[in-house]
Design a protein that fits this description.
Layout lengths: L18 H12 L6 E5 L6 H13 L13 H7 L6 E4 L10 H12 L8 E5 L7 H12 L5 E7 L7 H4 L3 E4 L5 H12 L3 H10 L4 H9 L2 H16 L5 H8 L4 H21 L11 H10 L2 H19 L6 H14 L4
Parallel strand pairs: 1-4, 1-5, 2-3, 3-4
Helix pairs in contact: 4-5, 7-8, 7-9, 8-9, 11-15, 12-13, 12-14, 14-15
This protein binds zinc ion.
């Protein structure tokens, strides 16, 4: 990695639902009991990276004020502009790729240098589960002997995939999904939409507010609409699984499978409760109740398990043929309503 890649200006925000976590870290820091390594754990799309950035900004600030970084000292100025020489940001070289051992070795060198601005040196590493085994092993020594005034903040969206030896050397900070009321109010203010629309949006993104924001800003709404229309057309035999798979093969397959998994959960809800009020994807009610009428729980569970395990495979960076994977899934989707 080029040295310039690791510089990173901060975009620190403590979202209201993380106030408890924030206060806990401040207390540890103010009591001089802050550990050398924190592991921020929680589902994606809830703002953990911003929280990590806020923690970094706070411990590096020379004169924090009212539980916040001052925004004015030399350190805050560096962090808010081009980046700070004592902050190291480590991510995979491309989204979805592994964090490699060479990247961790460079990080270790940084950790053993002395601070350039005479304060804390902070590392943000995200996502922790992207470290392959040799990268994780290379980090272990640093976690054991981190040096004075250093803080490693590891962020994970998949705690189960982080090596136990890494987990056991970090203090865990669990970051929970905000309750639906808080999330809907926040998202409606942020997007200037009514709370009902915000609630619908949250249903699509499993309740994660920042994912809701991204969904809207990156125009994922259109992609979701196209994909859901394709799923409906498949059931009506207007298109074939092969056609749909090649139409969407360049998209984020994990995202598509995530949406499909949400639909399958809704079909299960209808099958189990005989009640349409429980479903999340309310805009697809007609299709979902139609499928529920013509399928069996066994078929839905089997497909649901398959989709989940394939998503896990994608997260583990196994490299399947994405178009084939999608086609296979879509064949099973159409088979839900065939006897
Ligand atoms: Zn400051």
């Amino acid at each position: 990695m080029e040295i310039s890649d690791r510089y990173h200006s901060l975009n620190a925000v403590v979202y209201p639902w993380f106030d408890g976590q924030w206060q806990r870290v401040l207390k540890l820091f103010n009591d001089q009991r802050l550990p050398h390594a924190l592991l921020l754990n929680g589902m994606p799309g809830i703002g953990k990276v911003r929280l990590a950035e806020a923690i970094a900004g706070y411990v590096m600030c020379h004169q924090p004020l009212n539980d916040k970084a001052c925004g004015e000292c030399r350190s805050c100025q560096l962090l808010n502009s081009s980046g700070h020489p004592d902050l190291y940001f480590l991510q995979p070289e491309a989204p979805g790729k592994a964090i490699k051992v060479d990247q961790v070795r460079q990080l270790t060198e940084f950790m053993h240098n002395t601070s350039q601005q005479g304060g804390y040196r902070v590392v943000l590493l995200e996502p922790a589960e992207a470290m392959n085994t040799s990268a994780a092993n290379a980090l272990l020594k640093t976690l054991e002997e981190p040096g004075r005034d250093t803080l490693l903040i590891l962020i994970t969206h998949q705690l189960g995939q982080v090596m136990p030896t890494i987990k056991s050397r970090c203090q865990r900070l669990d970051c929970h999904l905000p309750n639906s009321e808080v999330a809907a109010n926040w998202l409606s203010a942020e997007l200037e939409i009514d709370t009902d629309a915000a609630r619908k949006l949250l249903n699509i993104v499993h309740g994660a507010p920042i994912a809701g924001l991204t969904f809207k800003k990156e125009g994922l709404q259109a992609l979701r609409a196209d994909f859901l229309t394709a799923l409906r057309d498949l059931l009506r035999q207007k298109v074939t699984p092969l056609e749909v798979a090649s139409q969407f093969s360049k998209e984020d397959i994990e995202q598509l499978l995530g949406w499909l998994h949400g639909l399958l959960a809704d079909i299960t809800r209808i099958l189990m409760t005989q009640n349409n009020d429980m479903i999340r994807n309310v805009d697809m009610l007609k299709m979902l109740s139609g499928v529920a009428k013509h399928t069996t729980p066994e078929k839905v569970f089997t497909l649901s398990d398959f989709v989940q395990s394939e998503c896990l495979g994608l997260q583990r960076r196994q490299n399947p043929n994405k178009q084939l994977l999608l086609e296979r899934t879509l064949i099973d989707w159409t088979a839900l309503v065939r006897s």
